Amino acid sequence: MTTPVCTSASTAVFPSFSSYVRARGPVLLRTARSLTSNPCDAEDLLQTALAKTYLAWERIEDHRALDGYVRRALVNTRTSQWRKRRVDEFSCDDLPERETAPTPDPAEQQVLRDAMWRAVRKLPERQRAMVVLRYYEDLTEAQTAELLGVSVGTVKSAVSRALGKLREDPELEKAA
User: Fold this and answer.
1) Nearest Cα to Cα of residue 70 among 10, 36, 40, 27
2) Would the pLDDT of 145 be above 90?
C-alpha cells in the first residue's frame, strides 16, 4: 500500500497545488513507477518532481499543462539521477593481471585433427561423403541430400550411423 504523496497539503501556501496533487497524484505515481524499477524510488522521484513543480508554481502560466510539466520534471530528475550514479573506481599502483583462459596447444589440436581425418577415412564412402558435406562443408541436410541425389531421411540416418562409428573409434578416443 502506498502512502499519499503530500500528507501535509492543508499547510501548503498554494491551495491549488494541494488540489492538483490530490487529484493527479496516483496518475503521476504510475508515470514515476514506469521510470524506475523500485516502487520506493518511484515515490522519491515523484516527491522530488513535485517539489520542483511547487517551487515553480507561480511561474507556470498554463495550469492546464501541469501534467506535462510534472512529467518533464520526472524524466529530467530521473535522467539526472542516472547521470550522477556512483561509479566505484579505485586507483592502484599495480595493474591486476588479466585472467585468460589457457589456449589449447596447437600441436595437440593438430594431433586431434589428424586422428579425426583418419577416423573419417575409415567410414564407408557414402557415409564419409555425407559427414564431410554436413560438417566440413557446413551444408544443411536438404542441401546434402540434393547434392548426393538421396532423400533427407537417408542423409539423417547415414550421418547418425557415421557419428556413432566415429564415437567408437579407439584412435579418436586416445587423441581426445
Assistant:
1) 27
2) yes
pLDDT value, residue 122: 92
Q: ∠ CA 94-100-101 to the nearest 5 degrees?
A: 160
- Let me know the angle formed at the C-alpha of 30 by 76 and 12, rounded to the nearest 5 degrees: 75
Compute the residue count for the chain: 176
Looking at residue 58, its pLDDT comes to: 85
C-beta contacts of 157-163 below 8 A and 24+ residues apart: 158/126, 158/127, 158/130, 159/127, 159/130, 159/131, 159/134, 161/127, 162/123, 162/127, 162/128, 162/130, 162/131, 163/131
Q: Considering the entire predicted model, what is its pTM? A: 0.43
Tens-place pLDDT, residues 56-114? 888 888 878 888 889 999 999 888 887 777 666 667 777 777 777 778 888 888 988 89
Task: Give the other-Cβ count within 10 Å of 16's Cβ.
Answer: 11
Contacts of 169 (CB under 8 A, 6+ apart): 119, 122
Residue 164: name the closest of 109, 108, 114, 124 by CA: 124
Which residue type, as a one-letter code, is found at position 26? Answer: P
Q: Which of 83, 84, 17 is nearest to 51 (CA)?
A: 17
